[in-house]
Sequence to fold (271 residues):
Amino acid sequence: MAVGVRDPYEVLGVARGAGRDEIQRAYRRLARRYHPDVSAEPGAEERFKEITAAYRVLADPKRRREYDAGRRSHQRYHGGIDIDLSGGLFRGARGADARAELTIGVETAYTGGRRRVTLPGPAGRPRQYDVDVPPGVVEGERLRLPGQGAPGTRGGPSGDLFLVVRLAPHPRFKVSGRDVMVEVPLSPWEAALGAVVPVGLPTGPLRLDVPAGSSSGRRLRLRGQGLPNPHGPAGDLFAEIRIVVPERLTPGERALYRSLARESPFDARLT
Fold:
C-alpha cells in the first residue's frame, strides 16, 4: 500500500470480518457527520471523500476480495478515486446524494408553486434553490434536484439533492394522505333546517349542501375535492359540522328560543 493511504477498514472503523450491513451502517453514520453540505468540521470534505472511497471498496464484493487478497499492484486505494481494473485508468466517482426537508403549506400542496430553499453549504456559505413544487405533493414525497448533491471527484458527476416534503400545520385544514378535513361552522337553525353554505379551499370556494338535522361532529364527504393526484384520483374532502351558538341573544332571539324550548319535546340527553 502506498505511503499515506489509509486502510478502508480503518477509515470506516469496522473489523475485517464485518458484514455488508455493518459496513453500510458505518458509512451512513460517518457520511451524515462529514457531509460537506452539513458539516462545519475542518477538513470535512476531504474526510467525506475518503469515507466514500473506502465504502466503494468494501461494499463491492469483487473489490473487497481483491483488496483483501493483496492485489494492490493492480488496484491502488486512495480517498475519492476509483481505478478501472481492466485498464488501470483513473475514472471519476459520482458524488453522494444529499437529503433535506422542504416545508410547505396546504395551499401549496393543492395548487403547487415556486419556493426558495436555503440550505447550508461548504465553508458555512448558504446555498439557495428555487424549487417548482407540483400540485398534489403529499407528506413524505421526495422532490429530486439532479446534480445538486455532493460534487464528484476527478470529473465525476455530482450526486442529486432530494427534498422531503413536510406539510406545515394549518389552522383550518387537516391532511391525511390526499384526504383533507375541514370544520364547517353552522348556526343552530342551519343545522336543524338544512342549508347550503360556502366552504373556502385554496382552489376556490365550494358550496356544501348540509342536510337538515345535522349535529356537531357529522362528516360530509365531497369526493375528489381533497389534494389533487397527478397519477390517479384526487383525495376527498371531509367537512365536519360544528354548531356555533350566538354568545349574545337579542330579546327577539331569546323569546324564540324560549318558545322553542316550551314547544319541542326533543331532549339531547336521550339521543
